[in-house]
Design goal:
Shape: globular
Number of strands: 73
Largest sheet: 5 strands, parallel
Helix content: 25-40%
Strand order of the largest sheet: 8-9-10-7-11
Oligomer: single chain
Length: 1521
Amino acid sequence: MDTEREALQCTAYPEVQSFCQKHGLAFEAVDLRWGIPNTQAADYLTTELCLEELERCQKTSIGPAFVALLGDQYGPCPVPQRIEEKEWEALRAQLTSRPRDLELVTRHFQRDDNTIPPTYVLQPPGTPVVPGPEEATLTSVLRGGAQEAWRLGLISQEQWMCYQRSVIEWEIERGLLNSARGDQGATVFLRDVQDLSKHILDDCSLKMVDRLADGCLDTNAQSLLSGLKGRILDAQPGALKSHHLPWSRDLVNPKNKAHARYLKQLSEQFVARTNHQVLEQLRELELGRQELGWLYQEIRHHLWQSTESTKVFCGHQDLLAQLGRRLRQDESRTHTPLVLFGPPGIGKTTLMCKLAQQVPGLLGHKTVAVLRLLGTSKLSLDARSLLRSLSFQLCLAYGLPLPPAQVLEAHSRVGHFFHTLLHTVSQRNFESLVLLLDSVDDLDSRRHSPRVPWLPLKCPPRVHLVISTCSGQQVLHSLQQTLKDPSAYWEVKALSGSQGQQFIQLLLAAERRMLSPGQRDVLWASLPECGHPGRLRLAFEEARKWASFTVPVPLATTAEEATHQLCIRLEETHGQLLVAHVLGYIVSSRYGLSEAELKDVLSLDDEVLQAVYRDWTPPSKELLRFPPLLWVRLRRDLGHCLVRRPVDGCMLLAIAHRQLSQVIQVRYLSGPERVKRHVVLAEFFSGAWSQGIKKLITLPLVGKPLNLDRKVAPQPLWFSGTVANRRKLTELPFHLLHAGRLEELKQEVLGNMSWISCRSISGSIEDLLDDFDMCAPHMDSPEVELVREAIQLCRPAVELRGLEKSVLYTELLARLLFFATSHPAIIGQLCQQAQSWFRTCPYPMLVPLAGFLQPPGGPLQATLTGCHKGITTIAWSLEEKLLVVGTQDGAVVVWDVEEQQVVHVLMGHTAEVKCVRVFAQGTLVISASKDRTLRLWSLLSGQEKVTILDGGSPNPTEPQSWDLHVDEINNFVYSTSGTKINVWNLETSKLVFCITGDASDPWVCVTLLAAQGLLLALSKGSQVCLWTSAMGKLQEKHQLSSIKEETPTCAVSIQTWARLVAGFSSGSIALVSAGEDTLLEKLPEAVRFLVVSEDDSLLAAGFGRFVRIFLADSQSFHRFMATDLEHEHEVETAVLGPENNLIITGSLDSLIQVWDLRSAQKLRSPTPFLDRTGLAAVSHHGSYIYFPKVGDKNKVTIWDLAEGEEQDSLDTSNEVRCLEVAEQAKLLFTGLVSGIVLVFPLNSRQDVLCIPPPEARKAVNCMSLSKSEGRLAIAYDNIVLVLDISPGDPCPVIEGPTYTFYTQLPETVVSVAVLANYRVLYGMSDGSLFLYDCARSKVFPLEAHGSRVSCVEVSHAEQLAVSGAEDALLCLWDLQACRGMFEMSYESSYCRGVRCACFSKDDKHVFAGMEDHSITAWSTLDGTLLAVQFVHATVNRIIPTSNGFMAPTSHGYLIRERFQCPSARASQQDPLKNFKKAVWLVKTRQREELAAAEAPQDAEPVAIDGKESKSNKRSQVCLIL
């Protein structure tokens, strides 16, 4: 059946493989007879291996597990490998009368007394002897003896069948006839050659039927074959697929048309049958699929590993009993985790598994025991996956709600949830919990983290945690630094000599083996007093292969020597090259290789194939594969040296022991060999030789190069729209890096948008960043670093919207387009790929046309999102490199900034945390809260040490400042709250003294000048006081002199100068000492906070959304960075990091941002414009931006966007309140606080026009231009002017006001829009909305908003209008009918409200800027929300363009986007499908109103006079002047 095998290999297998991959399944065809000589295929060992492989397939396959190709040959009957003693005696008795036959049998078998019971073992053939014509073969002799013994009842029928059955009958018996799944998991393809019996003597049919040694037909075999076919037909007719072929002399020639047609039909039927079986099984699995199937698989994996590990347990019973007693003692009290430690291989894993089995007996049958053997599965390789699976399992076990999605998305939240869950379990007060985590040092080994941040250092009652780790590892050292209790550590020691011997005896008994006295002596002599279980197991693996007649050689005395001895034995059996390459590939892989992957890789290894086909030629002229039998033989001999672990949906093979991995590295992966292994692995996972691509090779027996298909699995990124190739994503970057293929790594992985999106969407942003972190140190590429930083900056958007392709593409494109031209190799390629994807996207999309998000290469390095309600205070532990964060909800959160993980969440405060201070070399922190308590915490253990009732201000709700200072010499803490300074002794928690200030003049800042022994305080009334720090005695009091008309808002001490730096309400910063004060700087807004670095060399000042950095000189500070650091919301606090290389800021939007102060030395980022008013206007199609000048609002800055610099400024003489640009007329309108509107021609600086106010001292609130730019509306509090703009030379002429009207309402006009026909739409501060027709003197109240109207806008055809309000409502209005069409609501849990809106040029869509820093796109046809884009900044103005819009942002960038909306609405998707915290709703007016709104534009307009004026919140009268 060689041609059938080749046909399936060439055509059928690839199709089935592709089908399986699309369904997230792996396909592996195991044909142990392919590629080897017939002599090897027919031996008994091969038969035994075939049956073992069949059993493995039946256990692991969810689809078909067995396929048989059955023709007209029954096949040879193999000689049994072993015959048990009783059976041997029965056979011997029948052969006694035939001495020659008996001698033949005894010559081939030898007794082995080391098996239980003893067996006779078939000896390997020596020099082949050609049998004479009358000499009976060994097979026939044994068959005859067995026949007679069975007839006499001396052996069973099953034993008799071992001598009668051919290999194929054995396989069909196991795979189909005796299988529980029947024809669901098996198929037999029958080839029936018609009229074969008539041509049985033809030469061409010699190989098609069974023949005896003399060439005659083997009628007995043919009879058995007929019986087998009949049994299949009777028992499983559905599994039999027959193919009838007409007789032909060249029947087996593929060029024969009939045979070729048969092969084609066979392949097609194989594909159809196999795919059908797979689908049927998938349907059954889907019906019974458990929602948390991944979790149950993980639990089963560790339980199975535990069962395997404890089959033999010896020698640690005393330690096990001691651990049990300790668990019972800790049951009702708070206690530390238990740490088992010892050298590798000492038996920690077996001990942990045995303890897990005994837990119910120790603590009660309701006790929940959770075991994880870390590093043995994908979900136990890193802390995030581990905590996720543990949290789910605990919630299920205790009937608690499952972890919510927002918890699972942020690593920091998973840790917090896990800690909280342990306390919840403890408080249930009935079921105990024991968590056993083995090999903690195998967790996060990629990151080499110096701490174990997720590990609780105190366990509550009824919750126990037992972990194990290796001696001498970083994890144990870190634990010893934080977990100080020596009773928590339990050393696992070696076994005694007698226990070691007992251990080996138990292992032998489990395998039903024993040793002869002489062999035992050799074994014990090689292991003098050895009690190391790992070494003992290696010795057992050697000794278990000894037969009683084997003369053993002395074993190695050390574990390393024994491992080398194992490798030598494998090399002698299987060949040095094959062993070296197989083990080298497994060790060189990132997480291991599946068997299918390993066989594919070996099929690409020319050195291996040349060694395999040294003595025979491959069976096919079209394809070349590695013979699977050779791998199965080697795998069997490796035995316990291999371990299986579930990773990326596959079961991967890995080396079980560290010692063996190290030896493999030394023996087989030194020098260039390691690179060679990675090259082949990289070629495999890249798919370089898949999809029919042939590879050249020269085989020894051929002598000329052959170009053959290796038939390896294809490696696309996506197998289907939802199934990613996770194995490729995981392995390829690793192998390209270590193969030295850096250019390919940059182009195909790190610089490939498809790869980046697939890696992050199918995994996580963390997985993607891990790949960049792994590769970046090995390549000097600024572009790669920029891409990595851009991905890092995407995290907040992913947290908000979920990891969806359009979100990722938008985020990266809007950040990288800044560098597309200057860095074309990678960044330019990424941008082109993203733009190409957008062009083919079938859904409505907002497509970036230019960079507008915070670019990489700037100071912003990372944004941390976690379990914070709002950031209020930050402190830095320099020594421990920890960040301590105080929050509005009372939590104190401790971050490891390098790992971006939460180490502790310190719960205790019941109100907002106002101040935190770190001391004691970074190991302790004290916090002050609005709940009037001080709490002292250990940063190492996360435990609260002291609580002090501080008292504080009698009214905790009033605005006041908090300060904390620690005097470590005297062990005092100075706590300031409002008008009181309390000094506490930290040892006794007693009040030392108290200083009370003036109740009407609370303290802004109190600082401890430790070197001078003084307390320096600054009050809100600008009074400076000085006391002694020891007794609180007043030394001096005076008023500030340099700052007169401002109120102090914050201050910080400069210890090296013994001075204060104070911030004030109007932005002043002053240097304050005991006797004088001087002005340092003037900021644009009130100073919110001041912080200094540890060495006083840097000063950071926060104001509004900005932070400005200053550098100290001899006795002052000067500006350090050219630009300020900008948050998305107001910054509350900051802290300067170690070595003054970074600053970390926190804001009330719950974001912590990390800024690199060395960014000036890095790549220069685009310079944003500095508009801090939200009034920016745009001209010349986005070339120039106009905004009030920073620090001088009486001027307007003209910013050249292309050059990234200020081009000019315009002097307005008064503060600017609003700006409007007439793009066609090239005019800039500036509304001033004085009420004047200045009009500047954009193309010249002459002829400035002035429009005076209707009343003196009335500030301009807003302005609007009609779409044709022929009308201008200027709105004041309750007055609106309408002016005409007409063409003129050299500039347009402004006439009027043509109309002026008063609203006669107490509320003010806050937004206005004017139409060409002198109608004015305006919104009020209370939400009222009106349409006023100036020509007719009529007002039409429209339905009011529920809050302040933030924007009104008219469509370009002036048929429609849109209004937005702070209540998140957008209303679409029909201006002809003066009635509403749609109410469009969009709400986000972060914040709600509309800031601005505009119509698209064709009036089909509305674009709106929202308060939650997103832009939405709506349909004017039916009010549908089409798209949402998160832009990270406030947008106050949107200007439509021909294909989208422009919008200046609060971050100083101009958004340019194309709105891509397919005409087929059926293709629309939910724009919020991944938007975790937002909802949208559209309400439609009555049907007749909608019908009127959709009337053709050429129909008669509805008469305004016919529209009855409806009352609003109150009536109004408009007066015409």
